[in-house]
Specification:
heterodimer; A: 500 residues; alpha+beta; Copper Amine Oxidase, Chain A, domain 1; Immunoglobulin-like; Aminopeptidase; 6-stranded mixed beta sheet; 26% helix; elongated; B: 202 residues; alpha/beta; 5-stranded mixed beta sheet; 3-stranded mixed beta sheet; 6 helices; 21% strand; globular
Chain lengths: 500, 202
């Protein structure tokens, strides 16, 4: 065995030398990363040849992929491509081609290597596309060649905060409908598109294990770590871009489950179609107990309990993002509550309360919406009068109304009236209503809310029977369900109005 | 010129008239300050009174009711307003229910040139409040309506707590700005209750 060893070494050295010399040889070619040809029914790989720092494609491959007839003319030093009677003529070492008699510039010359013709990648979009019966688009960054009018939006992912909560943003341009599905341990974002030109962050951060393209060309998968809780997904479409924000809170330790019956994990995958956030405000909290019934039921407990039920119903049924102004027994100021709704650009705010009267007689639910005072009315008028028109990119102007933040409700009173009406109707189906089921009053929280907003007084805790009822699961579930039904109805009404 | 002079004379005589009325009021009410200090109107026959409409919860707790009561006569809008509020803070006549929390005291009352009145209450109004939107609306509008109904010079009422502007008394009703009269919670006065009230009073 030993005598053969030098021979083996010698042959290895020859092979290595040959390989090293390969780029120096006149016909040397390197294989670059392939492009992908995307068509409506298939994805095919296009091999790339790198020659002199330029990415080229073999004309044979082009002919096979696009069913072209190629006729080489060695005498003239060129070739002719024919496709359905239309022709492209190109010559060796010329950075141009004649497409149906028109000269098209190419970024690098056409190269003849032995018997093979090599053309720059751009030949596809610049020369072939004009004679082909489908548009051919090049996306060099994504190494894509797109055949026909396929929707291939760009999707740029970035992780904004390691957290927890870990926050990742996915920017889809141009805007496309995105569906988010939360499965065990991952969030699947499906973009309504034929493929994605995705730019994804390379490394794991916080509660995100990785972000990768899915098996289907229109999906991106956000894989979560073991410690991740239920992700919340929010979507906003503006300026022809869709922004998807995935927020992953830390998971709840299994030994401390939430209040029984309140934290039902979403049974089915949650589908999110419209980007909306609902803010639910459980009234009072901490040292502010609100109304205390004779039987000991405190308003702050009831509001938090029902708010949690509303949240899980909205998340599982409507698939919307829900933010609560408090999720435990703590004191939160009215401004902090309004700020939570405003800063999260909530599409509506529902504040939960229980009522109290100086007598035990009054009973029934009531819905309040804000009444503007003198300054609120003045602010509303001033906002309309002082609206400034700002130029926007791409032409045109956009009117911006300036209104003091603590009078933000001024612009939404009419919508809040509608919201209160729907809440009243839905509540009436399940719980007794008071003699004044819908009222307008100067409500401090609502006045600062920059969105349709209402206060729901679920029952009078000063009424013995109502207090007893309000403590039952049936009551809490009914009220929660009625509120969710009202939110769903209100959303469908406003969507109808927005798309005339 | 003659027109200007005429206006000057008119304004001057108006000022003189106002001064005269003020002087009469001031002298006339000299013995009065002792009465509000000793809280209850224990000697109703000795002091002059006005009849003011004060606001309480109806016996069923559903609404506010305007009830006519005697309030010591005082000189000037501010002093009269103070008397009205002091009476409003006292116990409600049967069968009505008081809607201002027990222990609430009037710290100050003043009126601006614009006709905005400021009612400054001790912290008990918030601390001892039973909560609930209806209770809070009743507290706020009993005060606002009592002042605006009885003092035509006052257009709106701003409630202060312990000398400071606050968001709300019990977390619902916005009292950061002056509020105008609102009778949406007020039920038409029950005449039978009124007559009952009269017979019980002395």
């Amino acid at each position: 065995m030993t005598p053969r060893l030098p021979i083996t070494r010698a042959s290895a050295a020859v092979v290595a030398l040959f390989l090293l010399a390969l780029p120096l040889l006149p016909f040397a070619q390197d294989n670059g990363a392939p492009y992908t040809l995307l068509s409506r029914d298939a994805r095919r790989s296009i091999p790339i040849v790198v020659n002199g720092g330029r990415e080229l494609i073999a004309l044979d491959d082009v002919a096979a992929l696009f069913s072209l007839t190629v006729r080489g003319d060695s005498l003239a030093g060129g070739f002719t491509i024919t496709y359905r009677g239309r022709t492209i003529i190109a010559s060796a070492d010329q950075p141009m081609a004649s497409v149906e008699g028109k000269v098209v510039a190419l970024p690098s010359p056409v190269v003849q290597v032995g018997r093979r013709w090599l053309v720059p990648v751009e030949f596809l979009s610049r020369a072939l596309s004009p004679i082909y019966d489908q548009r051919i688009t090049l996306r060099p960054a994504a190494r894509l060649v797109i055949l026909g009018d396929l929707r291939v939006p760009r999707l740029a992912a970035r992780i904004d905060a390691a957290g927890p909560p870990t926050r990742a943003t996915f920017l889809v341009t141009p805007a496309a409908r995105v569906t988010a599905t939360t499965e065990s341990g991952r969030v699947v974002l499906r973009v309504e598109a034929d493929a994605l030109e995705a730019t994804l962050p390379p490394s794991a951060t916080g509660l995100i294990e990785n972000i990768r393209l899915g098996d289907q060309s229109d999906t991106v998968i956000v894989a979560l770590t073991r410690g991740a809780g239920t992700p919340r997904v929010q979507m906003v479409t503006a300026d022809n871009a869709t922004r998807v924000i995935v927020e992953i809170p830390p998971g709840v330790a299994p030994q401390t489950p939430g209040a029984p019956g309140t934290e039902t994990p979403a049974p089915a995958p949650v589908s999110i179609r419209t980007p909306q956030t609902i803010v639910i405000d459980p009234g009072h909290g901490g040292e502010d107990v609100g109304v205390r019934g004779a039987g000991g039921l405190e308003e702050k407990q009831l509001t938090l309990d029902v708010a949690r039920r509303v949240r899980s119903l909205i998340e599982s049924r409507l698939g919307l993002r829900v933010i609560m102004t408090r999720d435990d027994d703590k004191l939160v100021t009215l401004d902090e509550r309004a700020a939570t709704a405003n800063n999260n650009k909530a599409s509506l705010l529902v504040s939960l309360h229980a009522n109290g009267s100086p007598s035990a007689t009054p009973a029934g639910a009531e819905v309040f919406y804000d009444r503007l005072d003198r300054e609120g009315e003045a602010a509303k008028k001033a906002a309309a009068a002082q609206a400034i028109a700002l130029p926007i990119i791409g032409g045109g102007t956009r009117r911006i109304e300036i209104i003091p933040w603590d009078l933000a409700q001024a612009a939404h009173v009419e919508a809040s009236d509608v919201l209160a009406g729907v809440l009243e109707e839905e509540l009436r189906k399940v719980v007794p209503m008071s003699a004044r089921p819908r009222q307008q009053a100067p409500m401090r929280l609502l006045s600062a809310a920059n969105m349709p907003a209402a206060v729901v007084e679920m029952a009078y805790l000063t009424n013995g029977k109502q207090e007893k009822d309000a403590g039952t699961d049936a009551f809490k579930n009914n009220v929660a369900q009625a509120i969710v039904n009202a939110i769903a109805r209100f959303r469908s009404m406003t969507e109808d109005r927005e798309t005339p | 010129m003659t027109r200007k002079r005429w206006i000057l004379v008119a304004v001057g005589s108006a000022l003189a008239l106002v001064a005269a009325v003020w002087a009469i009021n001031a002298f006339g009410s000299k013995p009065a300050p002792a009465a509000p200090a000793t809280t209850a109107a224990s000697t109703p026959t000795e002091t002059a009174h006005i009849t003011a409409t004060l606001f309480y919860a109806s016996s069923d707790g559903q609404s506010l009711v305007g009830v006519k009561r005697d309030v010591p006569l005082a000189s000037g809008v501010v002093e009269q307003g103070r008397q009205i509020l002091l009476t409003e803070l006292q116990a409600a006549p049967q069968p009505y229910i008081k809607v201002i929390p027990e222990g609430t005291a009037l710290r100050a009352f003043y009126v601006t040139d614009r006709g905005d009145a400021f009612v400054d209450l001790s912290p008990e109004v918030s601390r001892a409040h039973p909560g609930g939107s209806l209770n809070e609306l009743m507290t706020v509008y009993a005060l606002v309506n009592a002042v605006t109904t009885n003092l035509p010079a006052v257009q709106s009422v701003q409630i202060l707590v312990d000398g400071k502007e606050v968001d709300a008394i019990a977390g619902h009703v916005d009292i950061r700005r002056p509020l105008t009269r609102d009778t949406s919670l007020v039920r038409e006065r029950d005449t039978t209750q009124d007559s009952k009230l009269k017979t019980q009073k002395p």
